From TrEMBL, chain A:
Similarity annotation: Belongs to the MreD family.
Source organism: Paenibacillus vini
Protein topology in the membrane: Multi-pass membrane protein
Membrane-crossing residue ranges in chain numbering: 69-91, 103-129, 141-159
One Pfam family cited in the UniProt record for this chain: MreD
The keyword Cytoplasm is annotated on this UniProt entry: no
Keyword vocabulary terms for this entry: Cell membrane, Cell shape, Membrane, Transmembrane, Transmembrane helix
Designated name of the protein: Rod shape-determining protein MreD
TrEMBL record, chain B:
Family recorded in the similarity comment: Belongs to the MreC family.
Gene3D superfamilies in alphabetical order: Rod shape-determining protein MreC, domain 1, Rod shape-determining protein MreC, domain 2
Organism, scientific name: Paenibacillus vini
Residues covered by the Rod shape-determining protein MreC beta-barrel core domain: 129-284
Primary role: Involved in formation and maintenance of cell shape.
Protein name as annotated: Cell shape-determining protein MreC
Listed Pfam families: MreC (PF04085)
Coiled-coil boundaries: 72-116
UniProt keyword list: Cell shape, Coiled coil
């Protein structure tokens, strides 16, 4: 059970690498500044819904920090805070661990809007961006939602199965 | 009042608030001019950078192959343009050599010191992009050369087309480049670039301070005299101030209008670099930085 979880986290790291290296090549050049999918974040949302919201919180903080350090342009902490906070919040909102597909998709939609909004809020708080929120919404938040939604649909079946195996084994161990 | 205390007694809320304060402190501390990275940051950047290097290059090759196939029909046109450029180049080369030698001779006659002579002797080091972060507000790319090769914070980074960004943070084997699209006049940590127009270096002075995110153009402000500046002029950095290297190509003027306070003019400059599909870039080493 432990091993399975570590492999999943390793896959998350792989996804993080792919997000920075291969994904930019797949996006058409005219959309390159407007579609910035946070694939790792979407996968961590699954963790916080189907496994445990505290796992989601820790993973969100760690991978956010990784993103912050590797792409350190103006400050550290924006991604870490946004990913950790929104993963925890969405894990808190979905109390049942048996969230069906439509509910999960609603969580993904709100989650992606929430992440980009927190990021935009942080940046405007520190004076890095002066455009109004409506600009951000039209420029990248809404295009992102579509791409992340499609990605969530793709990973839904395999990732949920793996996470359910982990939680089922844990509950069996707890009973025993 | 009692209710408020009860609310604060909630452990979860307390932790959340502490976390919020902690994060704002971290953000505030890391914002601004931090020149050196701590070793955990360097370690993370170098390890991740190595893995990214393995992934980015093959992806670039595959994408490049598809691009080449789709652009096959434009090959003839490109070939023609290159031939024209080559003929221009050979003509200019003869002229340039002549001027350069004359310049050298005059510098010797005027007894220039060594530092003065080598002031504009930049070396361009090639670097490969290893990953891209397209966050619209905080766009950065990571290069595969770093502190070991002598890269320092604040160096200019250029593609074959023009200026791309400025090195923001350096670890031992990688360097993060903050793109010039993040430039902002209202941000105290973002410095303007003194610029001029190619061919009119002595007449035109302006400063590129901000990038308009909605239209995707630079704004060149503080132009005293708009008579000499024309649409279509090539804007290059002038090196006035000595921090930023001179002769970096920035873009073409598309529009000139009266500036904010009506005293100076502001020109809209379309960037020369495309800021997409990164492959090789050049880090510009100034001679001063090498000596230290």
């Amino acid at each position: 059970m432990r091993k399975r979880k570590y492999i999943l986290i390793l896959l998350l790291f792989l996804l993080f690498i792919v997000e920075g290296t291969i994904v930019p090549w797949l996006i058409p050049p005219s959309w390159e500044t407007r579609i910035v999918p946070h694939l790792v974040y979407i996968a961590i949302l699954f963790f916080s819904v189907y496994e445990n919201r505290h796992t989601g919180l820790v993973l969100g903080l760690c991978f956010g920090l990784l993103q912050d350090i590797v792409y350190y342009g103006s400050m550290i902490g924006a991604y870490s805070f946004a990913m950790g906070f929104s993963c925890y919040l969405l894990g808190l909102l979905s109390k049942t661990r048996q969230a069906p597909l439509p509910l999960m998709m609603i969580i993904v939609l709100t989650g992606s809007i929430l992440l980009d909004s927190i990021l935009f809020g942080t940046y405007s708080l520190f004076g890095l961006v002066h455009e109004p929120y409506a600009w951000a919404l039209m420029n990248h938040i809404i295009p992102n939602v579509f791409v992340q939604f499609v990605f969530a649909l793709i990973i839904y079946v395999p990732l949920r199965r793996q996470l359910e195996i982990i939680t089922r084994r844990r509950s069996v161990e707890d009973k025993a | 009042m009692l209710k408020l205390f009860k609310l604060l007694g909630n452990k979860r809320l307390f932790i959340l608030l502490m976390g919020l304060i902690l994060f704002i402190a971290v953000m505030g501390f890391t914002l601004g001019s931090r020149t050196k990275l701590s070793w955990p940051e360097k370690f993370v950047k170098d390890t991740v950078g190595f893995v990214q290097y393995v992934f980015y290059k093959p992806a670039g090759y595959v994408a490049g192959l598809f691009e080449d196939i789709s652009e096959l029909h434009a090959l003839q046109e490109e070939n023609e343009q290159l031939k024209i450029a080559l003929s221009h180049y050979t003509r200019d080369k003869a002229y340039y050599n002549w001027i350069e030698q004359e310049n050298e001779r005059l510098k010797n006659d005027l007894k220039f010191t060594n530092a003065q002579k080598e002031m504009y002797d930049y070396t361009w080091k090639i670097a490969h992009v290893i990953s891209v972060n397209d966050d619209p507000v905080n766009r950065t790319i990571v290069l595969n050369i770093g502190g070991r090769e002598g890269v320092k914070e604040g160096m200019a980074v250029s593609s074959a087309e023009g200026l791309v960004g400025i090195v923001s943070h350096v670890s031992n084997f990688t360097a993060t480049v903050k793109l010039v699209t993040t430039m902002d006049a209202r941000d105290p940590n973002s410095n303007g670039i003194a610029v001029t127009a190619q061919g009119k270096e002595n007449q035109i002075f302006g400063v590129i301070e901000s990038f308009d995110k909605t239209s995707g153009n630079f704004l060149m402000s503080r132009i005293d005299d708009k008579k000499t500046l024309a649409e279509g002029d090539l804007i290059v950095s002038s090196g006035i101030g000595g921090v930023f290297p001179r002769g970096m190509i920035i873009g073409k003027v598309t529009d000139i209008q009266v500036g904010e306070f009506g005293l100076t003019y502001t020109a809209t400059v379309k960037p020369a670099a495309s800021f997409t599909d990164w492959k090789e870039l050049f880090v510009v080493f100034a001679p001063e930085a090498e000596k230290e």
